[in-house]
Structures are given as C-alpha cells and as structure tokens.
C-alpha cells in the first residue's frame, strides 16, 4: 500500500466504525468545555464527567466562577488530580475572560493559549469542538496510533500534530481526531492490546511495531 492508500484506509475504516461521534467531555457551551478540557489533563474523561456537574452546579460561567475562591474550586475538583494548579487556572482564566473578552471564550489559539493553565492541546480541543474551527488536538491515543500506523516518527506531540495535519484533509480534522481517540481506546490501547482486534494496525501498521508485538507474545 502507498502512504496515500494507507491514509484512505484509516479514514474509511474510522468512518464505518464511528459514523456518529460521541464527544468525550460533557459540556453545554464553549466555557464549560474549556473548563472540562483543562480539568482532563492527566485525568480520565470519565472522572472529569463525574466532577464537572458538581462544579457547574455552583458556577457554569466566568461571572459565577470568580465568586468562588480558589480553595472552594479546589475542594470540588480534587478527585481529578492536580487540583492546586487547575483551581488557580480556572479562577484566573475566568477573571481574564471577564476583563478582556466580555466573559466570552475567544476563538483563536493565541488568545486561548494566553489563558492560565491552557496549553496548545486544550486550545485545539476548544476551537474544534466548541467552534468547529479545523484543529487536530493530539492526545496520548493519537500520538500512539500515529506512530503505530507509521504516520509519524513519534518524537513528540508537536511533530505528530504536524504530520497529522499534513496527511489528513483539513475538512476531516475535527471528526478524525475524535474517531482516532475512540479507536485507540477500544481497539488499540497502550495496555492489554490485542493486535487481532486492531484491524487498522494489523493491516497498515509499522513493521517494527507489529514484530515487537509478536516477539512479546511469544
């Protein structure tokens, strides 16, 4: 298979598996999505979805959020981990949204990444999922699969994002990054990986990855 045929195979397989794509983090608007994504760093989406309703019951907009103290926010979000940093970030970015953006979440990488505790990946998720702006947020699943499929050298997520954007049509980015995440969770996990179930890697995967898999099995 040529590189392009492999890319097409991935796109078509993911379309078949995920014709409708669930959004991993529960939210109702750009602000609640931004907070949920920030909270998901080094935590699971399942855990975040358990905690965000408790926080949003008290504050689901920046104006209510700044009425809470950093300690109050921290107490609520403690179960998701890294709560000291995240609670400061949530309070701080809520204040900045009010001061600089009329309480609205901005729609550019630059403005989003200027907010406390908001990195490139968080900004990319918000742009793609809240505003429909083409972005390719790279999480651990996408980073792992792009390497397994031989689409990137796997050095770092910055390189993986560049390679993904170069290989896949921009019109598909917003759907595709989610489809790859779901596929990674269900068929190509880091632990407990069963190559026989992982149709994409089995068909187009990097030779060294497949050989290593069988070596470990034997």
Automatic annotation (TrEMBL):
User: EC number(s) on record?
Assistant: 4.2.99.18
Q: Which cofactor does it need?
A: [4Fe-4S] cluster
Record carries keyword Phosphoprotein: no
| Occurrences of domain HhH-GPD (ranges) | 39-186
Task: List the InterPro entries hit by this protein, alphabetically.
Answer: DNA_glycosylase (IPR011257), HhH-GPD_domain (IPR003265), HhH_base_excis_C (IPR023170), Nth (IPR005759)
Q: Does the keyword Transport apply?
A: no
**UniProt keyword terms in alphabetical order:** 4Fe-4S, DNA damage, DNA repair, DNA-binding, Endonuclease, Glycosidase, Hydrolase, Iron, Iron-sulfur, Lyase, Metal-binding, Nuclease
Which Gene Ontology molecular-function terms are recorded? Answer: endonuclease activity
Cofactor: record remark: Binds 1 [4Fe-4S] cluster.
Reactions the enzyme catalyzes? 2'-deoxyribonucleotide-(2'-deoxyribose 5'-phosphate)-2'-deoxyribonucleotide-DNA = a 3'-end 2'-deoxyribonucleotide-(2,3-dehydro-2,3-deoxyribose 5'-phosphate)-DNA + a 5'-end 5'-phospho-2'-deoxyribonucleoside-DNA + H(+)
Q: Which PANTHER family match?
A: A/G-SPECIFIC ADENINE GLYCOSYLASE/ENDONUCLEASE III (PTHR10359), ENDONUCLEASE III (PTHR10359:SF18)
Purpose of the protein: DNA repair enzyme that has both DNA N-glycosylase activity and AP-lyase activity. The DNA N-glycosylase activity releases various damaged pyrimidines from DNA by cleaving the N-glycosidic bond, leaving an AP (apurinic/apyrimidinic) site. The AP-lyase activity cleaves the phosphodiester bond 3' to the AP site by a beta-elimination, leaving a 3'-terminal unsaturated sugar and a product with a terminal 5'-phosphate.
Family recorded in the similarity comment: Belongs to the Nth/MutY family.
Q: What is this protein called?
A: Endonuclease III
Q: Which gene encodes it?
A: nth
